[in-house]
């Protein structure tokens, strides 16, 4: 599939995570239908951020891990960095603060990180600094930081399995809330069906993606 993707950043997901999850699941279904791997990675990243906002860290780790694999496979670098920023927030929340700080510094120093990703990474790095002792923060962020995708992937897999969550203070995997699942074959709205019909009209993936952004962005 192509690497077409939404031209607009995702909406904030903290206010109504349940509604946002449904919206991202629907966009994921459509991106699967048009075989748009860039769009799939973007929707999975959104689902990961929704899960983080809801405190469903195992779910978030699974979404980020899958999104990262897809984005890296198609060399979708800007989206990879956005996903890694979400992964860094998850690492911060489950207690791997030094690892999160090192990753965030690498993201901030990389020229492929867009403005939105850099702003988010900078904010998260401030949270890391507040949680680490000064010496720990310097050790985590000094020198040349690199993005070790294998290490991040392993950390996400551990979190997805609940292993890393046991290190989070006062949090056991059994207590992590789960978002209500939304099946990918859930009945779509008429507007979403119209987007799918564009496939039969010979529209390109980018044209369909642009139409999807407009469709999901209206009420």
Report on the structure:
The chain is mostly helical. 65% of the residues lie in helices and 0% in strands. The chain contains ten helices and no strands. It has helices at residues 17-33, 37-54, 57-73, 77-93, 97-109, 115-131, 134-141, 149-160, 190-200, 205-216. Helix 3 packs antiparallel against helix 4 (77-93) and helix 5 runs antiparallel to helix 6 (115-131). The radius of gyration is 18 Å and the shape is globular.
Overall shape: globular
Point out poorly predicted stretches.
Answer: 1-12, 166-188, 215-219
Proportion of residues in β-strands: under 5%
Can you give the helix content as a percent range? 55-70%
Largest sheet: none
Gyration radius from CA atoms, angstroms = 18 Å
Q: How is the topology of this model organized?
A:
Layout: H1 17-33, H2 37-54, H3 57-73, H4 77-93, H5 97-109, H6 115-131, H7 134-141, H8 149-160, H9 190-200, H10 205-216
Helix pairs in contact: 1-2, 2-3, 2-4, 3-4, 3-8, 4-5, 4-6, 5-6, 5-7, 9-10
Short description, anyone?
The chain is an all-alpha fold and 219 residues long.
Pick out its properties:
single chain; 219 residues; mainly alpha; 10 helices; disordered N terminus; disordered C terminus
């Amino acid at each position: 599939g192509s690497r077409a993707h939404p031209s607009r950043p995702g909406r904030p997901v903290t206010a109504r995570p349940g509604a946002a999850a449904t919206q991202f699941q629907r966009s994921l279904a459509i991106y699967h239908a048009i075989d748009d791997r860039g769009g799939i990675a973007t929707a999975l990243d959104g689902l990961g951020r929704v899960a983080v906002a809801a405190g469903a860290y195992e779910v978030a780790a699974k979404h980020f891990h899958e999104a990262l694999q897809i984005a890296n496979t198609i060399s979708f670098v800007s989206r990879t960095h956005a996903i890694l920023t979400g992964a860094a927030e998850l690492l911060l929340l489950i207690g791997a603060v030094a690892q999160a700080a090192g990753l965030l510094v690498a993201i901030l120093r990389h020229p492929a990180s867009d403005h939105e990703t850099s702003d988010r990474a900078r904010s998260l790095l401030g949270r890391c600094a507040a949680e680490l002792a000064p010496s720990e923060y310097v050790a985590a962020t000094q020198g040349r930081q690199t993005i070790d995708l294998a290490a991040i992937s392993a950390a996400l897999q551990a979190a997805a399995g609940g292993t890393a969550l046991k290190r989070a203070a006062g949090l056991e995997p059994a207590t992590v809330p789960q978002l209500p699942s939304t099946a990918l074959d859930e009945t779509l709205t008429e507007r979403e069906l119209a987007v799918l019909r564009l496939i039969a009209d010979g529209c390109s993936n980018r044209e369909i993606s642009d139409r999807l952004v407009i469709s999901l962005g209206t009420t």
